[in-house]
Amino acid sequence: MASTSDFKNGLTFHWNNDLYTIIEFLHVKPGKGPAFVRTKLKSITTGKVLDNTFPSGSKVEEVRIERRPYQFLYKDDQGYHFMHNETFDQIFIQEALINGAPFLKDGEECEIVFHAEEERPLFCDLPPKVELQITYTEPGIKGDTATNTMKPATLETGAEIRVPLFINEGEMIRVDTRDGSYSERVK
């Protein structure tokens, strides 16, 4: 059990029949009344962020989680198959547990977060930015860079994103996996 004095960013605990991670917290001692802790919590299962206030001294059931390095192997009808980088154990997880699944390519390194006591995967985090090749897009127009106009492009993983007009087919670009946006061209 962890009390409010043990709160820190990244602490994971079981509360309201769900697992939550603390994103932000603030101990508040008003001039009148008891102290409390304002928190911003992220649900591990749904990804929703909510604000909550805990009275000072409240206890929550702490959950131990582990981040393990895995390499993506392939996708089939069972799900996404991964291999542990050191033990070579293979597991598969469902697409719903992967953050940024459309940008996952064969051989990509990522971290899978496990519930340590139950040994079950909670979610899979890709690197914040990945480099992917454009397999199809309309031809770029030379010199048309004055406006911030975007066009659709298909990536090697099959995902479709919006890119600037000067990006052409066959080029490597960096994509932000958190929101699926174009970041920059790779030279």
Question: How does this model look, in words?
Answer:
This protein is flat. The mean pLDDT is 90. It folds into three domains: 2-62, SH3 type barrels, CATH 2.30.30; 65-125, Beta Barrel (OB fold (Dihydrolipoamide Acetyltransferase, E2P)); 129-185, OB fold (Dihydrolipoamide Acetyltransferase, E2P) (Beta Barrel). The strands form three sheets. The protein has a six-stranded antiparallel beta sheet, with no helix packed on it. It has a six-stranded mixed beta sheet with strand order 9-8-7-11-12-10, with no helix packed on it. Strands 15-14-13-16-17 form a five-stranded antiparallel beta sheet, with no helix packed on it. It contains no helices and 17 strands. By secondary structure, the chain is mainly β.
Task: Write a short abstract of this structure.
The protein has 187 residues and is mostly beta strands. The chain is built from no helices and 17 strands. It is flat.
What keyword list fits this structure?
187 residues; mainly beta; SH3 type barrels; OB fold (Dihydrolipoamide Acetyltransferase, E2P); 3 domains; six-stranded antiparallel β-sheet; six-stranded mixed β-sheet; 17 strands; 55% strand; flat
